[in-house]
Write a structure and sequence with these properties.
The complex is a heterodimer of chains A (449) and B (329). Helices cover 69% and strands 5% of the residues of chain A. Chain A is mainly α. Chain A has one domain. The longest helix of chain A is centred in the N-terminal third of the chain and has 40 residues. In chain B, β1 and β2 form a beta hairpin. Chain B has one domain. The radius of gyration of chain B is 20 Å and the shape is globular. The chains are: A mainly alpha (449), B mainly alpha (329).
């Protein structure tokens, strides 16, 4: 394989790893806040212990995520110097703001995690909210940079140099808010189902700790609403892609031939040679409706683009199927769970709990798949329509070694993090209830025994 | 004007990274060099000292990278291609160090086997980062970077594989260790042997000065530095300030807390600042020409936007950091 292929794989690997931690870093602080607030309201020891347990989980993810984020800031320049030299000045604005938001998040997180009994209980709780707000803000801001790669704006390009740079309009590119919304909802959805799965597993294993029941309810309510919002948002997202990047949409749907009443393809194995998609289930006019709100509308197919500008159709199509499939499944599970919570039968439905356990990794897999759709779907461009990925790659040879190094390093890092989380989950039952001093700090004199 | 503002922030971020992040890596080096009986205490103290501010310490390097690619893209590109290998080494160090810290700090169970592995990785990471960092910094002005791509060795290895670069790397490691030793002296409690800690901080200080002198000699030998350069006002001023600050630290380490912390920062800042101002406006010396900050700067619109973002960021982060340090230091 070429250096370019290895550079792309290294980048995919680094980003694919970081995105999991970024998603947890965005959503999980809010979960922690909700549990914390429940404790402050009810004085329930289980809610307190849950807050501490989640806080430890977030701390690990945050520390590892800070490392993998730092790695990414280096990797952008190491692997894609041609891209960064031009893109940096244009799209640096959200990067700088993202850095600031992350910095603030780190500060608030330090204050929250080590600030028990040091501030007033109310102020301390607000810090957990601030952590979450900064986390989501940094996620939204960094997506602006990716949005710009999909929908470049804020400069004029003469073929080799950018001029008339307007950092603000680059930041407010057309793709930004659409993509950012999709990402934020996805983060909440994936994290909610991951957390719910872990706690459902412990309940099924026979734990009677009240902590897990609270956790499961919080996670499932957030997860269900996110999972219901996501398909609606996804629909608008697809329309935006249809308008801005028709080649990407065509690859997502393996839509080779331009025409009216384009079908929505479910499954199938795209054959790029024959331009057919055997074994797929087609819903006539479905894609036309999805992209243009009209079952008869014409949808641009890949035949409108020279073949060297096609993204790898099979990968994009499969990834898209995986993402949509998981999204639909989680929405269904979410509805069932909400119903059971309302009927107060959730903890008796062992089969539903088992399904929730099986959903544990699905949200994260969907995030990875969605990321593949947007990144691979943009190929061969690194800046859509402006710069090809092959023109941005580093001249440094031997990229295979960089790739191997990162596979080993990240494999090790992933195994370690997973192991640490596992130990935290196992140890959660040993978290002590609040002592008298802490209760007094949180609730005042009268509540201490 | 905006360029000057951004350069100042870059400088502040560099000093902050060297002091806050540096102390952090330095602790790993001290742990490595300490006798077995004291390692545990070094670790306890460092975890106590670093825990709440660990992430905040390390965001500085991200800020440095972002400023470079937004405001001075040509410097960034030159750096990421010519210094590819040491930057990668630094990354490996950051990953090992960060994970090992997380693991040692947050993991609950005591497990002797994994413990040993983590300790080893922790130290390796702690050494790899400052050595690469110093080697990169030195190579920027050594004139060994070819302006056109030649061979793999000539383009990606030779620029930093010089005696001067490697000596500077070792010097930076000793500098970080010294900063850490001074900071650790401000964290002790009654059960510690204060005198032993003070002695150690002083030894690290002397080692750091000696290695700094060695790096300077290799710079003179390598032709980067000529003795008359040292006799200009700025080098003299910066070296004097650094010597005075370091002398103050030597005298009062462990006895005065905040003043010695500040003096360490001043010493580190004045060496860096002197080095920087003496080279200004040159950002990178290539083999046949120089790249100045002006030549490397992004268009005005980007610089203005960046200053605004930095201004907003600093307004929010500054007070936040003050609170964080006040609460935990």
């Amino acid at each position: 394989m070429s250096d370019l292929a290895f550079a792309r794989m290294t980048m995919a690997f680094s980003l694919g790893y970081h995105i999991i931690f970024a998603a947890i870093g965005m959503a999980m602080p809010f979960f922690m806040s909700v549990a914390h607030r429940k404790w402050l309201r009810t004085g329930d020891d289980a809610a307190y212990r849950l807050t501490r347990a989640w806080g430890r989980g977030v701390a690990i993810v945050f520390a590892v995520g800070a490392v993998s984020g730092t790695v990414l800031s280096f990797e952008l320049g190491l692997l894609w110097p041609g891209f960064m030299e031009h893109a940096g000045p244009i799209i640096g604005m959200p990067f700088s703001l993202e850095g600031a938001a992350f910095f603030l998040e780190a500060i608030f997180f330090g204050l929250y995690l080590y600030g028990w009994k040091r501030f007033s209980a109310r102020l301390h709780w607000w810090m957990s909210v601030a952590v979450g707000v900064c986390g989501v803000a940094s996620g939204i801001l960094v997506v602006a940079a990716n949005g710009w790669m999909n929908s470049p704006s804020g400069f004029t390009w003469n073929g080799s140099v950018a001029s008339n740079i307007e950092p603000w309009s680059a930041m407010w590119n057309e793709a930004w808010l659409m993509q950012a919304g999709h990402m934020v909802i996805a983060a909440f959805e994936a994290v909610a189902f991951m957390v719910a799965g872990i706690h459902a597993f412990l309940i099924l294993r026979g734990s009677t700790d009240a902590m897990h029941k609270i956790a499961l309810k919080i996670a499932l309510v957030i997860g269900a609403f996110a999972a219901l919002a996501q398909p609606i948002h996804g629909h608008f997202s697809a329309q935006s892609v249809a308008e801005r990047q028709p080649a990407k949409l065509a690859a997502m749907e393996a839509h080779f031939v331009t025409g009216p009443r384009a079908p929505l393809r479910i499954g199938g194995i795209p054959n790029v040679e024959t331009r057919e998609v055997p074994y797929s289930i087609d819903i006539p006019g479905g894609l036309s409706f999805l992209a243009h709100d009209d079952f008869g509308a014409t949808v641009i197919g890949l035949d409108q683009f020279p073949e060297e500008e096609w993204p790898p159709v099979t990968i994009v199509h499969f990834a898209f199927q995986v993402m949509v499939g998981i999204g639909s499944l989680l929405a269904l599970v979410g509805v069932l769970a909400l119903w059971a919570i309302r009927k107060q039968t959730l903890f008796d439905k062992r089969r539903l709990l088992a399904v929730i356990v099986m959903c544990t990794p699905l949200g994260m897999i969907a995030i990875e798949a969605g990321w593949i759709v947007t990144e691979v779907g943009r190929q061969p461009w690194i800046i859509y329509g402006i710069m090809k990925t092959k023109d941005a790659v580093t001249p440094v040879p031997g990229q295979v070694w960089h790739f191997i190094l990162f596979v080993v390093l990240y494999g090790f890092l992933a195994a370690t993090t997973a192991w640490m989380w596992r130990r935290q989950v196992v140890a959660a039952k040993n978290i002590a209830p609040p002592d008298a001093e802490l209760r007094e700090w949180a609730f005042g004199e009268e509540s201490s025994p | 004007m905006t360029e000057f503002f951004i350069l100042s922030v870059l400088f502040v971020a560099l000093v902050a990274y060297c002091v806050a992040g540096g102390a952090d890596f330095g602790v790993g080096i001290i742990e490595m060099l300490s006798p077995k009986s004291e390692r545990k205490r070094v670790r306890e103290l460092s975890e106590h000292a670093i825990g709440p501010i660990w992430e905040a310490n390390h965001v500085w390097i991200v800020l440095i990278i972002v400023i470079l690619f937004v405001a001075f893209p040509k410097v960034h590109t030159q750096l990421t291609t010519s210094m590819y290998i040491p930057l990668l080494a630094m990354l490996v160090g950051i990953v090992l160090r960060g994970t090992a810290f997380t693991f040692r700090y947050y993991d609950i169970a005591e497990d002797v086997h994994s413990e040993r592995l983590w300790t080893w990785l922790f130290r390796l990471g702690s050494l790899l980062v400052p050595v690469s960092f110093g080697a990169i910094a030195a190579a920027l002005h050594h004139g060994t970077i070819p302006s056109t791509t030649t061979t793999v060795w000539g383009s990606y290895v030779a620029p930093w594989f010089t005696l001067y670069s490697l000596c500077t790397g070792v010097f930076v490691a000793s500098l970080f260790a010294w900063i850490a030793a001074v900071f650790l002296c401000t964290e002790l409690d009654a059960k510690d042997n204060l005198k032993a800690w003070i002695r150690r901080a002083r030894i690290f200080g002397i080692a750091c000065a000696a290695l700094g002198a060695l790096a300077s000699i290799t710079a003179i030998a390598g032709g980067t530095l000529e003795v008359p350069h040292l006799l200009r006002p700025i080098p003299i001023l910066s070296l004097t300030v650094a010597t005075l600050a370091a002398g103050y630290v030597f005298r009062y380490v462990g006895l005065k807390l905040w003043p010695t912390r500040i003096a360490v920062t001043v010493a580190c800042g004045s060496v860096l600042g002197g080095y920087w101002i003496a080279h200004y406006p040159v950002a990178i010396v290539l083999d046949d020409r120089v790249l100045t900050w002006q030549q490397a700067a992004a268009p005005d619109a980007s610089l203005n936007a960046m200053s605004l973002a930095l201004g907003i960021g600093l307004l929010l982060i500054g007070p936040g950091l003050v609170v964080l340090y006040r609460v935990f230091k």
